Amino acid sequence: MSIYRKVQAIERVFASLEREVATFQDATGMKCLSGCGLCCKKPDIAATPLEFLPLAYQLYKDGQAYKWFEELRSEPEVSICKAFRPFVSEGDRGFCGQYKDRGLICRLFGFSAMLDKQGIPQLVTCKTIKTELPEAHSVAVKHIAEKQPVPVMRNFYFQLRAIDAELGQTLMPINKAIEEAIKAILSYYSYRQRRGA
Ligand code: SF4
């Protein structure tokens, strides 16, 4: 499969996830707080390179891929996601500078479930939503306990892995995942250029 087709396939998985998340949000009232962005500041977000292939592809199209790659490579100690933009206005906590092309974990976190050891789905959300929207949180927990529809993390990781088992296999720090995704895109196009394709 060409890299472009992989990007399209990933985007289809993302689109289907967006629909499931919207259904879950409508049913429960769960949502992010305006101007929050706190979850993007976590220094230990793990992701696979594959979920950032659309971002890497977009950066390549915009002529930014090599710059990002060099910056990520030269700052391996930076743990906060490179796509995060911390300053907007007074009181804001920041936002994603690459929202359209954010990764799978960014789309799942807050509005999905993880299967526990017994295979029972458990809500995965953040402390802020739990504290600031306690009613919605309770509705969401009940909704899941009653086996109502909720995006299940594992299912979406499986769907991505079916597109590219290698790039979708390993979880790593988010910036490393972005770097590896860009590396895959740069290698692909450099090989094609060398072949005159
Ligand atoms: S890609 Fe965007 S949404 Fe995901 S962690 Fe980085 S800043 Fe946050």
TrEMBL record:
Superkingdom assignment: Bacteria
Record's protein name: YkgJ family cysteine cluster protein
